[in-house]
């Protein structure tokens, strides 16, 4: 589904990723793990064409979405964005906008048009998929900012689903949440994975083990740019990694 080939990235003249390749199959959850500063978020932003928005940031390599390079000069930025949703560490719904309108906000940004009844159906569908419908169906006109942190994050997931993306990128989506909210998001991820390809950055090894089928271990050693030390089926990365540094990291010896 999403295939990153030999991605290198720079901020100014500082190289932060060195020839990172990762194939992320359809209908699966891929976890990106590794210490802070090794380029996981940068890699995720490259998958969504957000890296190029940072002044002075450059990259090399290609990202294929269903076989097509999202960086192809003839493709519009919104083209990739429509197909690749993103959820961040800190829930960021539009706080003053209603829950209902938050879900639909992405449609306007990407230029998708829908009639009134289609929109209402979409709001229910996306909130249901994000596991939030039952909690908010009677208060859709209340502001997004009135929800709890965990609910706000599920609202952000619902918002990202409204454009029917093929891929959902999640950058430490549970780091700011309590354990109960975290479990609910993990449940949502498991359900969504049947229809959306998910890539999640997490510092929580139990979470990586619970939600992902594939895992990639990123590392940037002493001033060198980040690389993927190894990637593969999550079970193998955790139980029989081929590199000692992976074993040390997943067992908390870093
Ligand atoms: P991770 O998500 O694994 O913690 P990041 O991708 O955030 O790592 O960062 C990788 C490296 O790139 C770090 O050394 C970080 O300081 C640097 N970096 C990240 N964002 C920027 C930016 N906007 N400008 C300059 N350097 C950045
Ligand atoms: Mg990060």
Description:
By secondary structure, the chain is α/β, with parallel strands linked by helices. It has 10 helices and 10 strands. The strands form 2 sheets. A 6-stranded mixed beta sheet has the order 6-7-8-3-9-10, with helices on both faces. Strand 1 (2-11) and strand 2 form a beta hairpin. Helix 4 (116-129) packs across helix 6 (149-161) and helix 6 (149-161) runs parallel beside helix 7 (179-192). It is globular and about 55 Å long. Residues 40-41, 171, 201 line the site of magnesium ion.
The main sheet comes to: 6 strands, mixed
Strand order of the largest sheet: 6-7-8-3-9-10
Query: What is the N-to-C succession of helices and strands?
Result: EEEHEEHEHHHHEHEHEEHH
Bound molecules: adenosine-5'-diphosphate, magnesium ion
Radius of gyration: 18 Å
Between the first and last Cα atoms, what is the distance in angstroms? 32 Å
């Amino acid at each position: 589904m999403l295939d990153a080939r030999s991605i290198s990235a720079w901020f100014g003249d500082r190289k932060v990723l060195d020839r990172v390749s990762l194939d992320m199959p359809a209908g699966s959850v891929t976890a990106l793990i590794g210490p802070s500063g090794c380029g996981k978020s940068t890699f995720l932003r490259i998958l969504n064409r957000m890296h190029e928005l940072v002044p002075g940031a450059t990259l090399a390599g290609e990202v294929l979405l269903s076989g097509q390079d999202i960086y192809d000069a003839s493709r519009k930025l919104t083209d990739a964005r429509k197909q690749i949703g993103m959820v961040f560490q800190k829930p960021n719904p539009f706080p003053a906008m209603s829950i209902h309108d938050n879900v639909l906000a992405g449609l306007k940004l990407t230029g998708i048009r829908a009639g009134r009844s289609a929109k209402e159906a979409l709001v229910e569908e996306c909130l249901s998929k994000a596991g939030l419908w039952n909690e908010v169906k009677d208060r859709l006109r209340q502001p997004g900012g009135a929800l709890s942190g965990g609910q706000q994050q599920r609202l952000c997931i619902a918002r990202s689903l409204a454009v029917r993306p093929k891929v959902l990128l999640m950058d430490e989506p549970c780091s700011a949440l309590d354990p109960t909210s975290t479990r609910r998001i993990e449940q949502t991820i498991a359900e969504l994975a049947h229809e959306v390809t998910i890539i999640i950055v997490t510092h929580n090894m139990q979470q990586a083990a619970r939600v992902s089928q594939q895992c990639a271990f990123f590392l940037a050693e002493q001033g060198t740019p980040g690389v993927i030390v190894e990637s593969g089926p999550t079970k193998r990365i955790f139980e029989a990694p081929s590199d000692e540094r992976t074993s040390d990291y997943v067992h908390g010896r870093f």
